[in-house]
């Protein structure tokens, strides 16, 4: 489990590619001060497992499912990536619940500077729309952000100067893909109200009235 508060920007130093899998070698500094084999690290919002590490870098494997479902296969040596260790139980929770299980990718379609803020508009898959609402939470490349605009498939977020400096999102241009994880609580609620393939159990208005909830 993660919070979406990025700890460090790392650098991809080596990639071993197969047809639909990868081995990533990522140089970092801060997170290596407290890292162990088997730890979970969110890399651009994708939960990966530390398979090997030294004092300068760590290695992680990307399986075919992750390769296909995220934008991580578009990385190359020299790419900058957001890094976050799994949340500690004794710390402040500054973001929102982020699992590191990316729902899919979106495409940046607009960037606009407004005083100290950078507004970025991203087009997401139609299947995400039921999880999105203005002022709701979303994780983009692992960064916990607030939705400032939702229009059909287009969402707009705003980056403060700190987030522009401390994450990779501000460095991305129009046409680039980003990893999207919709709010976990919204997904659970949606599944309860209208579970896929189980419409007979859906929480319809009539059912709520019948059982005294309305």
TrEMBL record:
<dbReference type="GO" id="GO:0009231">
    <property type="term" value="P:riboflavin biosynthetic process"/>
</dbReference>
<dbReference type="InterPro" id="IPR026017">
    <property type="entry name" value="Lumazine-bd_dom"/>
</dbReference>
<feature type="domain" description="Lumazine-binding">
    <location>
        <begin position="1"/>
        <end position="96"/>
    </location>
</feature>
<dbReference type="Pfam" id="PF00677">
    <property type="entry name" value="Lum_binding"/>
</dbReference>
<keyword id="KW-0808">Transferase</keyword>
<feature type="repeat" description="Lumazine-binding">
    <location>
        <begin position="97"/>
        <end position="193"/>
    </location>
</feature>
<keyword id="KW-0686">Riboflavin biosynthesis</keyword>
<protein>
    <recommendedName>
        <fullName>Riboflavin synthase</fullName>
        <ecNumber>2.5.1.9</ecNumber>
    </recommendedName>
</protein>
<dbReference type="InterPro" id="IPR001783">
    <property type="entry name" value="Lumazine-bd"/>
</dbReference>
<feature type="repeat" description="Lumazine-binding">
    <location>
        <begin position="1"/>
        <end position="96"/>
    </location>
</feature>
<comment type="subunit">
    <text>Homotrimer.</text>
</comment>
<comment type="pathway">
    <text>Cofactor biosynthesis; riboflavin biosynthesis; riboflavin from 2-hydroxy-3-oxobutyl phosphate and 5-amino-6-(D-ribitylamino)uracil: step 2/2.</text>
</comment>
<comment type="function">
    <text>Catalyzes the dismutation of two molecules of 6,7-dimethyl-8-ribityllumazine, resulting in the formation of riboflavin and 5-amino-6-(D-ribitylamino)uracil.</text>
</comment>
<keyword id="KW-0677">Repeat</keyword>
<feature type="domain" description="Lumazine-binding">
    <location>
        <begin position="97"/>
        <end position="193"/>
    </location>
</feature>
<dbReference type="GO" id="GO:0004746">
    <property type="term" value="F:riboflavin synthase activity"/>
</dbReference>
<dbReference type="InterPro" id="IPR017938">
    <property type="entry name" value="Riboflavin_synthase-like_b-brl"/>
</dbReference>
<dbReference type="InterPro" id="IPR023366">
    <property type="entry name" value="ATP_synth_asu-like_sf"/>
</dbReference>
